[in-house]
Amino acid sequence: MPEIWLPYGSVEVAVSLKAENLAEEINKQAPLMSEDAIQETLRKIDLEGRTSIFSPKPSNSALEIIRRVIGELIAQGADPSDIIVHTDETSIPKLNKSLGDKQANISRIEKPTKIIGKVDGVEMKIPKTLQEAKSRVIITDTGFDPLFGFSGGLASLVRYFAGDAIAEAFRRRKNNYPSPGEETASSLFANEFANFLNESVSIEILPSKDGISGIHCGNLIDAHTSASKQLLDTSRVSMKRDIHALIVSTAGNGSDSTLADGLKAVWNVVGGMKDKGHLTLIAECSDGLGSEALKMYVSDRLDVKNLLKRGKYIEGLEDLVYIQTALPRSTLILVSALPDYYTEIKMGFHTCRKAGDALSYILSTTGSRTKVHILHNGSVTLLSKKE
Predict the structure, then answer these.
(1) Whole-number Å distance between alpha carbons of 252 and 115
(2) How confident is the prediction along the chain (387 residues), in pLDDT tens digits per residue?
(3) H/E segment holding residue 176
(4) Which CATH superfamily includes the segment(s) 3-29+239-384?
(5) Could you state, in order of their start, the residue ranges of all structural domains in the chain?
(6) Same fold: 3-29+239-384 with 35-232
(7) CATH of 35-232, one of 3.60.15.10, 3.90.1150.200, 3.40.50.300, 3.40.50.11440
(8) Number of Cα atoms under 13 Å in the Cβ half of residue 258
(9) Cα gap 153→140, rounded to integer Å
(10) For residues 243 and 237, what is the distance between their CA atoms, to the nearest angstrom?
(11) Alpha helices by DSSP H, the chain
(12) What is the pTM of this model?
């Protein structure tokens, strides 16, 4: 009986199933960069004077690169007092812990107040510190994004630095279905915004379960373009057979700390499944729901239809929209540490505490001969349907 281990928070859990029930185990991983290659890439970054590093919601991989960049700056003679790392308020404790003995100032990303231009009549605002920094570095992960097609520097600018710009990007979506790995109207809007800040240094990271598979440096648009291309080349899987039942884990390394994080894996794979299939997400969600929209929704403080009608946006609203439009095509089974009241009663998922229970539920509802696909690294793998 095959036993397949999948990341779950800081540990791994086993899925044990009969050989005749295993359709395919998908574990697509890009080759990791060597230590020498990482160091050589970062040494090529040309920075001088007072340096501001911007990294909203940094992943473990991003934290590692921030440490290395600060180390390189100090090694080149930079005064630690001239290095400022800007991040969101919730990430400050994690950043402090990660930097350890690396001396740098840490600051919360300010509200955007400085107008730097207009896109189709929409004012583009950024934080004053982002505008005034002599040398600015934007460090982000590149992944798949259901709204922008790809996450990374461009999407991060709009999501975290530009105030109401995210509402405009959301308004420009073509439909209410996730579009990971595609060029979208929202991504084209982000490109236009990036033109105002394209002299910034962007470092886009392709994280992997066991390290880093790519680092792309340059201006915002060039770094994002090359990182997105590598991601598609190494992380897209075209299925050879229909998927009726799928068990998916994230890429580990902190990628399942919240439900909002875990749902990224769902949006990456749901388009590759047959309608009315069974999709199981393995994600601990130890830090809770994640986005403001999810928190408000489970406490009955958010009406999605009303918000869409008024053209308003709250962080994470797209997840709720996709849950209501894309997920009815499938049955979502969630294995997590979240309260059933949130996930089952409020969100409408079927919940299990163990991966084995999820498998039993699939086989009991679809038949004992059901073929189950198992996918590792769902947060960085894009599935497409059999053609």
Answers:
(1) 38
(2) 679 999 999 899 999 999 999 999 999 888 899 999 998 998 888 877 788 899 998 988 899 999 999 988 888 888 888 889 999 888 888 888 888 766 778 988 888 888 888 888 888 888 888 877 778 899 999 999 999 999 998 999 888 877 788 999 999 999 999 999 999 999 999 998 888 887 889 999 998 877 899 999 999 999 999 999 999 999 999 888 889 999 999 977 778 999 999 999 999 999 888 888 999 999 999 999 999 999 999 999 999 999 998 888 999 999 999 999 888 888 999 999 999 999 999 999 999 999 999 999 999 999 999 999 999 999 999 998 766
(3) none
(4) LarA, C-terminal domain (3.90.226.30)
(5) 3-29+239-384, 35-232
(6) no
(7) 3.40.50.11440
(8) 16
(9) 6
(10) 12
(11) 35-43, 60-75, 92-99, 128-132, 153-156, 165-171, 185-194, 220-235, 259-269, 292-298, 304-309, 317-325, 340, 355-366
(12) 0.90
Strand 144-145 to strand 372-375: parallel, antiparallel, or no bridges (unpaired)?
unpaired
